[in-house]
Amino acid sequence: MTIDGLTTIRSSNGPKLTADRLAAEVESKGLTLFARIDHAAGASAAGLELRPTEVLIFGNAKGGTPLMQAAQTMGIDLPLKALVWQDAAGVTFLSYNDPAWLAKRHGGGGAHETVIGNLSAALQALARAATTPG
User: Fold this and answer.
1) What is the reported pTM?
2) CATH entry 3.40.640.10 includes domain 7-129
3) Which terminus has fewer CB within 10 Å in the chain: N or C?
């Protein structure tokens, strides 16, 4: 599956372990974990079924503010988000928006290529830590 601007990585772990490891990595890197949204639990509360699907929202002002200063509409996509989800075959994935794609979408990346590069590298490292065998 290819979705423009979305990076998706197969996890060697189940959805709960992947999400928990991502949360731990986020916090260990000094980022703020703002929220964990369990869509499957919400669906269940409404009497509906949904495979494990959880969004983690995280970041810090030092990384996001310069991007919003360049293109204030970037605030709709920040803080950063990662989606941990399980497909019909029981395979777990972690997906996140590519920061370079976000900069292109909002037209504010040119002056902040270093920030975009740092965010990209940080997201890759977080995703790798969460999805490698635990």
Assistant:
1) 0.94
2) no
3) N
Burial letters for 48-69: b for 16+ Cβ neighbours within 10 Å, e otherwise? Answer: eeeebbbbbbbbeeebbebbbe
| pLDDT tens track for 79-128 | 999 999 999 999 999 999 999 999 999 986 566 788 899 999 999 999 99
In angstroms, rounded to a whole number, what is the distance separating the alpha carbons of residues 59 and 119?
A: 10
Q: Which residue reads 């269940």 in tokens? A: 44
For residues 91 and 107, give the distance between their C-alpha atoms in angstroms, rounded to a whole number.
35
Q: 1-14 pLDDT, tens per residue?
A: 689 999 999 999 99
What is d(CA 32, CA 15) in angstroms, rounded to the nearest whole number?
Answer: 21
**How far is the C-alpha of 7 from the C-alpha of 82, rounded, in Å?**
10
* Cα(10)–Cα(93) distance, integer angstroms: 4
